[in-house]
Amino acid sequence: MNQTQLSQDAALQILADVSQIITTSHNADETLQQTSKMIAERMRVDACAIYAYDAQENQLRLKSTIGLVPEAIDAVTMRPDEGLTGLVLQESRPLQVLEMHRHPRFKLFPNIGEGVYQSFLGVPLLIYRRAIGVLTVHTFKRRSFSENEERLMTTIASQIAGLVSKALLIKELDSNTSVGFSRPAPQTHTLQGQGVAEGVGLGKALVLEQGSMEEPVRMSPWSIHEENKAFRTALDQTIKDVLGLIDRLSGLVSPDEAAIFHAHIMFMEDSAFQEKIEGYIGQGNSAAWAIYQVIHEYLIAFNNIEDSYLREKSQDLKDVGIRLLHHLGHSFGEITDKEGILVAKQVLPSDIARIDSTKIKGIITSSGGVVSHAAILARSLLIPAICVSEASLHEIHEGDMLAVDAGDGSIVIRPSEETIEDFSALLVAQDRHRSQLERFRTLPCLTRDGERVNILANVALESETLQLKHFGAEGIGLYRSEIYFLSLDSYPSLENQCETYRKIIERVPNDFPVVIRTLDLGADKAAPYMGFQKEDNPFLGFRAIRRQLKHPAVLKTQIKAILLASEGRENVRLLFPMITDLQEVKSVKGIYEECRQELIEEGYHAPQLKIGVMFEVPAAIFISHKMMPEIDFCSIGSNDLTQYVLAVDRNNTNVSNIYDPLHPAVLQMIKHLVKNCAEVNMPLELCGEMASDPDGSVILVGLGLRQLSMSASLIPLVKERTSMFTLSDAEEIADFALHEAASAMDVRQKIARFHRR
């Protein structure tokens, strides 16, 4: 018996290559054929085939193959009650047969060439637990496929199932046999992008013609006084417009999302912003050109910042510029009142605010990432949004029927009737799931057998604190203080910092924690005024606490501001990032005590805060037991920890597929810290995307964590997922991950099997 085994590294590479094929190909047949060829070669099988199920005809149709008769593609069909492939579809589960001819369901299809093969493995292509096709492999000799190989096939099937469901396979399946059409139907094809606001949508394309930031005429025929007056009038009218948008959004989104537009007003009311514009007008330039020039200068400064979170905020400034220019006679772009999917090169926050959310079924744009304010508003209004390349955007025309799935970033242009039916069903399921999630907002996070997990929120902006109660957060597990610094033109004063921190702290009840992390800045994440030098590898460079210890003045001012803002509160905690060794802990504690003593000597009441370390450097975890006597709590920064353990820059598309916090090596590292904390009864929390990953949250509970911090909007989803598992389920999954799994794929497959029980 041939027992060809596949290594875990080889399996991971296959998955990565399948993903690459899917995301780079724009032709359905080519994509499926390449996938079949690659599976056959890498799994060392003699044949591979992919079948699509046409529910209308109740037929499985061969769509691609290596090893079977090529002419059978699109020509050979079978009913679900015929053959082994049909059995896989009927039962919606994997099927492995050592000797095909001996199986009672074996049926020889003479035109397909299966008769020469002995062994068979088939797995269903599932979308929302509904089989829409089958992936099969065959071998000439008897071969028993391992459990790992079966899991690999199941994972590959899940990768290509989305492709099938979105009209790459379920499209005009009868095109080869139908007659009477006077002309062929418009070609269905799929675009691939990045989902920035989750959900599915269905509707006709509404292409938005927008206002622009093109350079206006520079010289003015009017006096400086008249141009200044025109600028002031435009400024007043734009502020009035923005206040109107805030009022319009009231009741549609949370106060936090509506408060996004307060940032627009702050831009316009900033004295430095106004003075720069008036300075250019004073040189004889037109008001329109002066506005354009100042906005352009700010945009250049924003775009030079490598931190994606802050860089996306440049869209707010551009929004302000377009609005100001509109009131000086420049084109603005009208928002349609039709129903459909909005398509535009750029969708600004004000565009989102102006649309009728009951009519817009989706948004497609070629700019603006996950953290842009436009994306935040789209998520709040429950409008799916996808960002694609500009070239892809040009493939969409006014009136095209579109089906969008922001979950995997796919857009089907001119979908088939079958695909439209699929998406209609997905929309019903989506509405049902959103209704179910609503009840979890105010419930505690409990496993199915009642084990309690504390769920906190990550916060970057003051306005985000308004979300805490709405989504049921039990405090702030991480306040990213650096975002406040990055939004400024210079280091904030002690007084300004104190005021900002106090506003954050006062939004949280005294019995819920507020964890404030000191500046986590590096060359990849810094404003121009900070003086960071460019580094070849900023993630491993002169950043965070390393820089603060070399230049403690900024750190001391920040610590003093946090101490002053914490007066009268007992729930504030101070967290230091990127600690590597014990000496760094002692050094930052020394600075903290020095700051506290100086404030006391100046007559202030400086409370004693709890001090914590963010464990994201592997070396720190290995010596964490030596740090425990010096600190009051521990926090795991799972994003950076995963990068450092796996030696992967998750922003590098060449290797980002390797990045997965559920890798057993990362989980081993986390378990090591959990064990050390448990031995001395040390409080421990985890912040990062892993906490809000439904799979990640379950395994973290199994590893022993009882406090997780995440984006507030994801809290109901994590509560729902946690409620599906018992504590013993979670612990069994964690034990498997620590002692048996060899890859993140193994761990996720294990969780999926539990979920299907």
Topology:
Elements (H helix, E strand, L loop, with lengths): L7 H17 L3 H15 L4 E8 L4 E8 L10 E2 L4 H9 L3 E3 L21 E9 L2 E10 L7 H22 L20 E4 L1 E4 L2 E8 L16 H26 L5 H4 L1 H10 L1 H12 L4 H17 L4 H4 L2 H13 L13 E5 L4 H6 L5 E6 L7 H8 L4 E3 L2 H4 L7 E5 L4 E4 L3 H22 L6 E2 L5 E8 L8 H4 L4 E5 H6 L7 H13 L7 E4 L26 H7 L1 H14 L6 E5 L5 H20 L8 E6 L2 H5 L1 H4 L5 E5 H9 L17 H16 L4 E4 L1 H4 L1 H10 L3 E5 L3 H8 L4 H13 L4 H12 L2
Parallel strand pairs: 9-10, 10-11, 11-12, 16-17, 16-23, 17-18, 18-19, 19-20, 20-21, 21-22, 22-23
Antiparallel strand pairs: 1-2, 1-6, 2-3, 4-5, 5-6, 7-14, 8-12, 9-13, 13-14, 15-16
Helix pairs in contact: 1-2, 1-4, 5-7, 5-11, 7-11, 8-9, 9-11, 18-20, 19-20, 20-21, 27-28, 27-29, 29-30
Estimate the strand proportion: 15-25%
Major β-sheet annotation: 8 strands, mixed
**Number of helices, where a helix is a run of at least 4 consecutive DSSP H or I residues:** 30
CATH topology of the largest domain: TIM Barrel
Question: SS-based structural class?
Answer: alpha/beta
Q: Supply the CATH class of the largest domain.
A: Alpha Beta
**Roughly what percent helix?**
40-55%
User: Any low-confidence stretches, pLDDT <50, length ≥5?
Assistant: 167-186
